[in-house]
Amino acid sequence: MKRENRLTTLFHKLRDKGEKALVAFITAGDPDLESTEVLVEGLARGGADIVELGVPFSDPMADGPTIQASSERALESGTTLPKVLNLVKKLRNKGVDIPIVLFGYYNPVFVYGHKRFARDAERAGVDGVLIVDLPPEEAGELAEELKKRGIEFVYLLTPTSDERRIRLVVQRAGGFIYYVSVTGVTGARKKLPSEIRDHVRRIKQFTALPVCVGFGISTPEQARRVSQWADGVVVGSAIVDIIARNTGSKRLADRVVRFVKSLKDGMRTP
After folding, report:
1. Annotated catalytic residue: which of 30, 41, 63, 241?
2. Could you give the CA distance from residue 26 to residue 239 in angstroms, rounded to a whole number?
3. Residue 195 annotated in active site
4. What are the tens digits of pLDDT across the range 227-258?
5. pTM of the predicted model as reported, rounded to 2 decimal places
6. R_g of the chain, CA atoms, integer Å
7. DSSP 8-state secondary structure symbol assigned to residue 67
8. Which of 117, 129, 175, 227 could form a disulfide with 7 if both were Cys (CB 3.0 to 4.6 A apart)?
């Protein structure tokens, strides 16, 4: 009998406590895989509820300059999809039990092979997969293989998603819905759109799945505000920027942990 997916378990626990999920994104292999291993442990220690591990790709079209640069650094350090899966396995063997979602692009998975990827992802301890450039209309074979292995396929919705699109995505998604708060690419922003609340409410009319909001959230205040409406908040570029500015420093992990703690504490503030 398959265990309940960690994502499902997490959201049940958070709901019971009246809390919202902090989803922390970092690029695997930035600046190297050894550092990523330490950082994931730090993210869990700092209060992150879910870790999104970016799988580096040479043409990350949905990402802004900060995450594009992190992807380039990761590729330069020799990071590949098999090595990312091995990293997840190492973390699980060390007792790290936080839900892990792989975030990336379709080409590396296609080259790896759907069946093999799903099998190896399950063995490693991956809980979810989000593939930016693979819409639900084209994801059938991979989605089926992941489903067999108990791995959730997370899909994106955007401010331009109409009712037909929302219905399609919520029908096929698992784990949670990732709502992209702004049109365009990833990146920290000083001001978030005022329509986020209305868009999240609209999506929730069609699904009981948790809705997490990402793209642009970079401060504890922004995280607190968005968590009032959403089931989770995704922070990426702001964390990746700290990594970029502190690469080579012995205090890298401590600075990331401190920032993540400030985000989670902000989300708990009434």
Report:
1. 63
2. 7
3. no
4. 999 999 999 999 999 999 999 999 999 999 99
5. 0.94
6. 17
7. H
8. 175
Angstrom distance (rounded) from CA 200 to CA 203: 5
Nearest 5°: CA angle at 235, between 270 and 264? Answer: 35
pLDDT at 233: 97
CB–CB of 142/118 below 8 Å? yes
Per the annotation, the verdict on 52 as an active-site residue is yes
Q: Are 241 and 26 in contact (CB under 8 A)?
A: no
The residue extents of the domains of the chain are 6-265
Q: Which of 61-65, 138-142, 157-161, 183-187 has the lowest mean pLDDT?
A: 183-187
Burial 138-156 (b: 16+ CB within 10 A, else e): ebeebbebbeebbbbbbbb
**Cα–Cα distance for residue pair 76/67, rounded to 1 Å:** 14
Candidates 3.20.20.70, 3.40.50.2000, 1.10.1740.10, 2.40.160.20; CATH matching 6-265: 3.20.20.70
Residue 16 pLDDT greater than 90, yes or no: yes
Q: Give strand ranges (E) for the chain.
A: 21-27, 50-54, 100-104, 128-131, 152-153, 155-157, 177-180, 211-214, 232-235
Which residue in 30, 41, 49, 52 is the catalytic one?
Answer: 52
Peptide bond into 82 cis (omega under 30): no
